[in-house]
Each structure stands twice: as C-alpha cells, then as structure tokens.
Amino acid sequence: MGDSNGFGGEWIFAFLIIAVIFGWGGAGFGGGNANVAAYATMADVNAAINNQSTQQALSAIQLSSANNNYETSRLISDQNMTMMQQSNSDLINAIQGFNTVNGNISAGFATVNQNIADLGFKMEQCCCGIKTMLLENRLQDTQIALQQSQTANIVNASNQYLLSQLGSFVPTAGV
Amino acid sequence: MNPLMMLGQNSNNLMMQAFQSMMRGESPRDFLKGIAKTNPQMQGLDLDNLQSTAQALCDKNNINMQELASQISEFANSNK
Q1: How many domains does chain A have?
Q2: Considering its fold, how many domains does chain B have in total?
Q3: How far, in Å, CA of A116 to CA of A138, rounded?
Q4: pLDDT for A136-172, tens place per residue?
Q5: Taking an 8 Å Cβ-Cβ cutoff, which residues of chain A contact chain B?
Q6: Which of A30, A75, A151, A168 has the CA that lies 20 to 30 A from B36?
Q7: Residue of A nearest to B3 (CA)
Q8: CA-CA distance, A173 to A106, in Å (whole number)?
Q9: What is the DSSP letter of A32?
C-alpha cells in the first residue's frame, strides 16, 4: 500500500476518504449502481458536537432569558403596585383637600348668606322706619289740617251766630 | 434533502478527478491536499497518514472500511 501509482497503493485510502467525506451515493463511481448513503465526516461530527454545545448554551441563555423576563415582569408588577398605591394615596389626599376647600367655600357662602340676610333685614327695618316716619308726617299734617278745619268751623260758627244776632237788627244780615 | 446527501452529489466528480489523477500517476496526498483547499469539510484531516485517517473516518461513521474499499475497487476496476 506504499505505492502511490495504482489502486493497490494509497489511492484506495484517498478514495475511502473522499467517499466517507463527500458520500458514496447517487450514480456511484463512473455511472455504476452503487447506492450507499452519504456519511458524516469528522468535520460533520465535530460540527454536530459543536451544535450540541451551541444548543446547550442556547438553552441556558433561553432559561436565563426566561428568568430575566420573569424577574423583570415581577419588578414591573411591584413598581406598578407601588405607583398605584401612591396614585391612590395622592387621589385620597387630593379629594380630602377638595373636601376641605369645599367646606371652606360652604362656610364662606354661609357667612355671605347670613350677611345678605342681615342686610335684607336692615333694609327692611330702614324701609319700615321710613314708612313710619312718612305716616307720622301725614298724621301730623292731617291733625294740623283737622285742627285748622276745626278752627275754621269754630270761626264760621261764631260768625254765623254773630250774624244771626245781628239779623234781628239788620234784615239782610243772615242771608 | 439531507446536507450529507447533497455533499454526496459532488462525490462523483471528485471520484472521477481522483481516478484521472491516479491514472496520471500523481500522488494521492497531493490530490487530497489540492481538493482540501476548496473543501473546508476536509479541514483538520491528517493527509500525510492516509490509512490512519481513512480508518478513523470509517470508525467514526461506523463504516466497515474493508467493505467500502471493496465496493470502490469494484467500481474503479469496472470503469478502467
């Protein structure tokens, strides 16, 4: 097999290497009917081993990724819960603040309403006083007029009496 | 298609080239080193020790080297 010229030499190993690496299939050598399936080369075996290592590494990465995703989701969930609690607390504080403001506004309006009511009462009192004064003035005027009328009546009666007394002496004095 | 089967489609051409190289009286080592330059799947093969390399390849692939050698010889002789 040390002969490099002829099939009995090392050429048979060269053919074996080619056959194993590149396959000994299809139409065979020179159109024959051989149909041996292709074989894996050392490189293919090494590639398969490397592929297995790669898949193991990938599985580890996927597991790590899944763990990271879970941890991330958990952190986000916790963060969301904290934010929701803070938000609720803020809303409660805001509502309480609004309630206080509303209470102050209501108290302010109550005071304003009271002041308006007082003002209305004072205005009514004032109006009543004015009316009273006007009535008193009218009464006074009426009394004056009555007094003047009474005085006139008295004077008139006196004059009639005097005329009637004079009529006995002057026939036309009582006409 | 199995990638190894696709590789197998190229074997006829290489086998024919090897056969012609052998007929020209060339060295099997030189031929293998020549095709190894354009076939990365041959990287790492010890082409200075063809017998042990062929044996190792057959062993790794659970191939009976004597049987395969007989098939190759049969076809080579029938195509001379």
Answers
A1: 1
A2: 1
A3: 32
A4: 998 999 999 999 999 999 999 999 888 888 877 766 6
A5: 1, 4-7, 9-32, 34, 36-46
A6: A30
A7: A38
A8: 86
A9: -
Percentage, residues of chain A above pLDDT 90? 41
- Cα nearest neighbour of B10 on chain A: A22
Which range of residues forms the domain containing residue A129? Answer: 40-159
For residues B12 and B9, give the distance between their C-alpha atoms in angstroms, rounded to a whole number. Answer: 7
Task: Give domain status of residue A174, yes or no.
Answer: no
User: pTM surpassing 0.90?
Assistant: no
Condensed to tens digits (0 to 9), the pLDDT of residues A79-92 reads 999 999 999 999 99
In-domain check, residue A121: yes
Domain limits at B10? 3-78
CA atoms within 13 A on the CB side of A57: 6
pLDDT at A59: 82
Nearest neighbour of A39 by CB, restricted to B4, B9, B10:
B4
Residue A143 falls within a domain, yes or no?
Answer: yes
Q: Indicate which of B15, B52, B59, B79 best probes the interface with A, i.e. most A CBs within 10 Å of its own CB.
A: B15
